[in-house]
Design brief:
mainly alpha; two-stranded antiparallel ribbon; about 190 residues; two-stranded parallel sheet
Length: about 190
Amino acid sequence: AFTKRCVDLFGAIVALILFSPVMAVVSVIIKATSPGPLIFKQERIGLQNKPFPMYKFRSMVVQDAASEKAKWTVQNDPRVTPIGKFIRKTSIDELPQLFNVLKGDMSLVGPRPERPQFVEKFREEIPRYMVKHQVRPGLTGWAQVNGFRGDTSIRKRIEHDLYYIENWTLGFDFKILFLTFFKGFVNKNAY
């Protein structure tokens, strides 16, 4: 656990340095093309079932909290801004989560965190769903590099999350990070 945390800190700092030009350009475009905050904060459930604010670049028009919580994003969702479509498809909207990694809310690799209402729903429907909350949630994970991201089978995602938890090694984390660069960033299911 200590080694994984050291890798997270080092990796997040290096990634922030490397991606800072991209993040700066995206920040300017978001502010210039859509009124509202630059960063979107959304409550997610993390390690030991504790809630935390997960950061993303805002990719949608500003909505009231009730309508935002009501549903997942779907294909051709009218709430997504033009720059939002691009940053969601390329996962650039996820880059602010590097700050979640620095804070200790997240890890570079682990199961993706869900919103509270979906955790309540899935814990009733999917056996062993809550096991994923025994580790820090990740920026990327085994499910994501295997294509289970966005509008895909939640059961398959959980199968992959459980496989990751039960077979974790530092080498497995490096494999997932390597695969993320080649097939995890651009995603046809990211609306």
